[in-house]
Write a structure and sequence with these properties.
With 341 residues, the protein is α+β, with helices and mostly antiparallel strands. The chain folds into three domains: 73 residues, Winged helix-like DNA-binding domain superfamily/Winged helix DNA-binding domain (Arc Repressor Mutant, subunit A, Orthogonal Bundle); 158 residues, GAF domain (Beta-Lactamase), CATH 3.30.450; 88 residues, Enolase-like, domain 1 (2-Layer Sandwich), CATH 3.30.390. It contains 13 helices and eleven strands. Strands 3, 4, 8, 9, 10 and 11 form a six-stranded antiparallel beta sheet that branches. A hairpin with a 2-residue loop joins strand 5 and strand 6. The model has no long low-confidence stretch (mean pLDDT 88).
Length: 341
């Protein structure tokens, strides 16, 4: 949970984040006063920076050193943006022209989308080809493990399996779990994720918990099936000061080559299709801690959908990146709707 900051400290933090995004250089208190005329003394700024450091919004190797935003500081900055801005109309027109030059082919559009977005935001862009998410449940099995815990096994079409643990009420026996397994398999067997979500059948609280877990695992299964994708902009990312170190640059290339990146990006996409901003240590995958990503879904639920993401250092230009992902996602959704109409 973010600490409630006074107006002055909130403004100071936004200034620190903005400066670091622009110049990638730690910002000292004297420089902040001279450059931005904050209306208070350097001593007051130093005290405020010490407070922001104690609260985890910035880091400094020692008290008189310049300030560097932390993941928490960037999160405050993003949460306090007025909204996802619109790119200038001239840029929107140029972007549409890029798509118009290409062939009316879905894969070609995905390739153009990755190229356009990477150039727009100056970082890496990843775009998956659209596909119809149609994973279907065959059956499920609940196995009693011990008090308060059961093992859930889900069988999808083509005999693919997903397994996880699920908490249970202490008075449920293995026989009770078998009854639930048979009931849910009978009612939900043969349905895809959207059909299960829109079902009319209602269940008791524990059964609803199992169904919710099934839906989550089906969503994960669908995301893992997006093997066709395009990645553009590696050169853009390697130009950033954060990757001047050869070892870090090599790690970045390895991450892309062994296909870890697409799986990690899709794991962060929101089911409601809204833009998701994931910053530093908020990433589920540890190898993405030095990065931030902006990811969104395109297409229409029930039809073909794909995913779009921009990936860069935590020092990325968040407003522009969010605007770029929003625009390219909108364009791809529009193009898909023309194909499907």
């Amino acid at each position: 949970m973010l600490t409630v900051l006074t107006e002055r400290r909130a403004g100071l933090l936004k200034t620190v984040v903005g400066e670091y995004i622009d110049f990638a250089v730690p910002i000292a208190s004297d420089a902040l006063v001279k450059k931005h005329g904050l209306g208070v003394s350097s001593a007051t700024i130093r005290n405020d920076l010490a407070f922001l450091e104690d609260e985890g919004y910035i880091s400094r190797p020692y008290s008189s050193a310049g300030a560097v935003p932390s993941s928490r500081g960037y999160r405050f900055y993003v949460e306090n943006l007025p909204g996802v801005e619109e790119l200038p109309r001239e840029q929107q027109y140029v972007l549409w022209q890029q798509f118009a030059k290409g062939e009316s082919d879905v894969e070609e559009w995905s390739k153009v989308a990755a190229s356009v977005l990477s150039n727009l935001v100056g970082n890496i862009a990843l775009v998956t080809n659209p596909k119809i998410a149609n994973t279907r449940l065959v059956k499920l099995e609940l196995i009693y493990i011990k008090e308060f815990l059961a093992f859930l096994v889900i069988v999808f079409q083509e005999a693919r399996l997903k397994k996880t643990f699920i908490p249970v009420n202490d008075n449920l026996t293995n026989e009770d779990l078998q009854v639930v397994s048979n009931k849910l398999s009978h009612v939900l067997g043969g349905l895809n994720r959207l059909e299960i979500e829109n079902r009319t059948a209602r269940f008791d609280p524990f059964e609803e918990d199992v169904v919710e877990m099934v839906v989550q695992m089906m969503s994960q299964e669908e995301k893992e099936s997006y093997s066709d994708h395009y990645i553009e902009g590696l050169r853009n990312l390697l130009r950033q000061p954060e990757f001047e170190d050869v070892v870090r640059a090599r790690e970045l290339v390895d991450m892309i080559e062994d296909r870890q990146l697409p799986r990690a990006v899709l794991a962060e996409a929101l089911e409601n299709g809204e833009i998701n901003v994931v910053i530093g240590e908020e990433n589920r995958a540890e190898f993405l801690y030095p990065f931030s990503m902006v990811v969104s879904r395109y297409g229409s639920p029930g039809g073909s959908v794909g995913y779009i993401s921009a990936l860069g250092p935590t020092r990325m230009e968040y407003p522009r990146t969010m605007a770029g992902v929003k625009l390219v996602s909108s364009v791809m959704t529009g193009l898909l709707s023309q194909v499907n109409s």
